[in-house]
Sequence to fold (479 residues):
Amino acid sequence: MKKTKLVLVLISLVLILSIFPKPTTAQTNVNCGKNNDIQKILDEITETSVAKWIRDLSGENPVVIDGEQYTITTRYTSELFNPANQNAKAYPYLTQELIKLGFVPGVTLHDHDYSFKSYAPKNLDRTIPDPEPIEIEAVGAKNLVLTIPGHGPNAHEQVLMTAHLDSTSNKPQTEAPGAEDNASGVSALMEAARLFRYYKFDRTIKIIFFTGEEQGLYGSYAYTEDFRHESDNMLGVVNLDMFGYDADRDYCMELHVGTMPESNVVGNCFTSVNNNYNLGVKVEYLTNEAIDRSDHYHFWRIGVGAVEILENYDYHSASYGCNGVRDRNPHYHRTTDLIQNMFIPATHRITQAGVGTVASMAGMMGKCFEGNPRLKATAQEDSIKLSWNAMQGADTYRIYRGTRTCAGEMEVLADVTGTSYIDYEIEYDTTYFYQIQAIETDGICFSEVLNCATAKVPKPEEPPVYDYRIFLPVSIKAE
Ligand SMILES: [Zn+2]
Fold:
């Protein structure tokens, strides 16, 4: 073969090979710059909305599960899965709240079952003696996993947002409010679920509520073992565990990044989001000094980039940004870990930074639907006819109904595939309020519920009632 021929062959080989896409490493296209849709999401997260979840989970507010009222006084793992304990219903509570948001059990919402046995609980604070090991039977425990499937070319990649749901204290079985540790993290996950459902993301988002953390990271251990085969597709993990105690109100926190380059991608995204959206959090970026005592550790163990978001827990050199001081929650693992001892403005801003990081890493693709369906309600003789315009990409329309206002609690009336519905279940002279929501297949993407239509069916005129007795012939008598 001549030299020129060989060169030609080589050139054509290079050309042919260049047609095939190179296997890209997952972190190539992460953009954590400012995005208007992410800004809208962050604007919807308020101190009030964040505090509501913390109050519900730490026993400040009663919660309603299956129509019954309960107070969650502990989230200690063995009690979470003890059906006899009426005061530890955080798991069914969160499941039901996620279903109310539109997520579907078995489709977007899954229990990840695992089992754990007796253990010696461990403290993050090594100055507190670790509690005595508690001997309990091996019990079935669960992590709650919410999947928001990606809509883009990188849908096979996952961005994980994690927090442990369980709590502990000096009276773990009965009184472990765990407002900061870790209702703060769970609240951030619920805010993400509440707001992400209106948007499309390139990548798949997994929102995971771990249990068994306080006993030795059991839930995250089980998860990373059972889903290790997906680890190549895990782009990064944002773990939120215990933030929002801030006695000196300096908005300083610790970001435990560690030394893996993959974790650095997540850590850099977090600091970019904090700067680009002017969130005003002061971040100590910890690499060699990062701690491994939360659920992020098991992702490091399987080679997945992860960061842990924590209060200003320990002393670090002043050059890190928190002036060399520490601001540690003295109520840690005690019955006094209550919302009143937190500084919610700090919890709020850190929540925004965490949610913004996940949204950025997942790749924002805009709203699920362009606009919202316009609903019309028309009173008919014995019913109310509802009709609306078809929305591109919607295959279900969820109709909500109430009898007071559109702003209050509305009940789901029906899921409909067409563009009209007749409501026969009405009472005369009652004003009904209707709303409608467009939904993409299996409840993975939703339109916002902003419309409102009302109608009332008046009571029909009664036909005249004749008193036939007055026409009875006088001759007929009762025998
Ligand atoms: Zn914790």
